[in-house]
Specification:
Distance between the termini: 51 Å
CATH architecture: Alpha-Beta Complex
Oligomer: single chain
Number of domains: 1
Structural class: alpha/beta
Largest sheet: 6 strands, mixed
Low-confidence stretches: 205-217
Order of helices and strands: EHEHEEHEEHEEEHHEEHHHH
CATH topology: Spore Coat Polysaccharide Biosynthesis Protein SpsA, Chain A
């Protein structure tokens, strides 16, 4: 029996979270041992690791799982069912929650860092979990390796996918958990990593989504800065977050985005 899905895990090295993910996968594959292959790829960047890992397999689907993802019982069987259905989107994912749902920094990261985002009728998926048809991955040219770290390459892939008229969606039944930052220092370190990743040679991903977003990039910088927390708060509320959680996440979003932009700009100026 040929595998249906090649699972690729881009990794920064051996860790407790990676070992736990591999145990999750082994548990999940007990009922479907020949349906998947698993590749752990260590290398210079998330994009390069994903591309290299994908090239090692030949299954019609490729599932990219970050090494700090946790899988609930039944996740793999549900995913395989979607892949075999014949009506699956070209790219899809599931909701990404937090392994520490009561930690305010982890909740904030779930709200505005490791999350899928919908603009109009277009989904932009977080790279922590992306499942894609192999033929589509090849047609899109894989992940853009000009992103030199982690952050931005997933957004860019979805931008290219929408331009190529590929279908992209989030399937509620395929939810997973992610090991998010749990203190302010870790949250800011993530913003630095994302900012550096986008610089210096990667194309900007902030104005390629909608006409509304494009207009915002031409507004004066002070106005854009003032609108960031307002727009984010509204977005959190639309996600169904409580007022208190939305206020906390908004308060943490401001320094996070300031740090991200600072490091991205520093990289572009080099």
């Amino acid at each position: 029996m040929s595998p249906v899905v090649d699972i690729v895990i881009p990794s920064r090295g051996d860790s407790q979270s990676r070992r736990q993910l591999l145990r999750d996968i082994e548990r999940e594959r007990q009922g479907v041992p020949d349906s998947i292959t698993v590749t752990v790829e260590e290398g210079p960047s998330a994009a390069a690791n994903r591309n290299a890992g994908a090239q090692r397999g030949s299954a019609p689907w490729v599932a990219f799982l970050d090494d700090d993802i946790r899988l609930p019982d039944g996740w793999l069987a549900s995913t395989l069912e979607v892949c075999k259905s014949g009506s699956a989107a070209d790219l899809f994912s599931g909701p990404i929650g937090s392994t520490h749902p009561r930690n305010v920094f982890s909740m904030a990261s779930e709200d505005f860092v490791v999350r899928h985002k919908e603009y109009g009728d277009q989904w932009f998926l977080a790279g922590a979990l992306i499942i894609i048809r192999r033929s589509v991955l090849v047609r899109l040219g894989g992940f853009d390796e000009r992103f030199i770290g982690a952050g931005g390459e997933d957004w860019r892939l979805c931008v290219v996918a929408h331009a190529a008229r590929c279908s992209v969606t989030v399937i509620p039944d395929l939810s997973v958990r992610h090991d998010n930052p749990r203190n302010f220092r870790q949250l800011m370190a993530r913003s630095r990593t994302y900012g550096i990743s986008e610089a210096p040679s990667a194309p900007s991903t902030t104005s390629e989504v909608t006409d509304s977003d494009e207009r915002q990039t031409h507004r004066p910088l002070p106005l854009r800065i003032a609108l960031w927390p307002v727009n984010e708060y509204r977005g959190f509320r639309l996600q169904g977050r409580s007022r208190i959680r939305s206020l906390i996440s908004t308060a943490l979003y401001v320094p996070w985005m300031a740090s991200y932009l600072f490091h991205a700009r520093q990289g572009h100026e080099r």
